[in-house]
Each structure stands twice: as structure tokens, then as C-alpha cells.
Specification:
5 strands, two-stranded antiparallel ribbon, three-stranded antiparallel sheet, alpha+beta
Length: about 100
């Protein structure tokens, strides 16, 4: 949910599910058109509404996605010899050299 301010009373806030917003217009007041075709006038600018939606969506995605472990810079690397489809037999590779 995002927090919005009513146009007539900037101190009066309410919360809206941003998935219900179909469009945002600045005429010069900010008008939100919902998926139900209801129009809401808000005191917030269109840029503020978009920023609130972006922050909300990012928080939903970060909560839903598993946390990836950061790669360690000190992890040792190992060299693997052989080609795809070739059996890796140490006694055969010594003879081929």
C-alpha cells in the first residue's frame, strides 16, 4: 500500500493499493484513475506517486526473492582439465602428452 494525501487536507492521509491505479494525470491537480474508473484527487505530485509505487514494488520484490549470497573474493578456484564428452582418465592423458 502507498500513502497518499487528500487534496483539500494535506494532513489527512490514506492508503491505496497501487495495483488499482490505471493512470496518473497532472491537470494541474494530480488525478488518479483507478481500474474501477473511479477518479481520485490527491495533493501529491505525479512524480511523488510514481516514486511511492516504485518503492512499494521494490519492497515487494525484495521480500519475495531469495537473498543471494555475495560472492567471496577470497574463494579458491580450481582448474578442471578435460573437454566436453571426453572421459577424464589420468593414465590416458599422461600418454597423450
Amino acid at each position: 500500500m502507498i500513502r497518499l494525501r487528500r487534496l483539500g487536507s494535506k494532513s489527512e492521509t490514506y492508503y491505496l493499493n497501487p495495483d488499482l491505479i490505471a493512470s496518473i494525470e497532472s491537470t494541474p491537480d494530480t488525478v488518479l484513475t483507478l481500474t474501477s474508473h473511479t477518479k481520485l484527487l490527491v495533493a501529491d505530485s505525479a512524480e511523488e506517486v510514481v516514486a511511492a509505487i516504485r518503492t512499494w514494488r521494490a519492497s515487494v520484490l525484495s521480500a519475495a526473492l531469495p537473498k543471494a549470497r555475495a560472492p567471496r573474493g577470497d574463494a579458491a578456484l580450481a582448474l578442471v582439465r578435460g573437454a566436453a564428452g571426453e572421459p577424464n582418465h589420468p593414465e590416458q592423458t599422461e600418454d597423450k602428452r
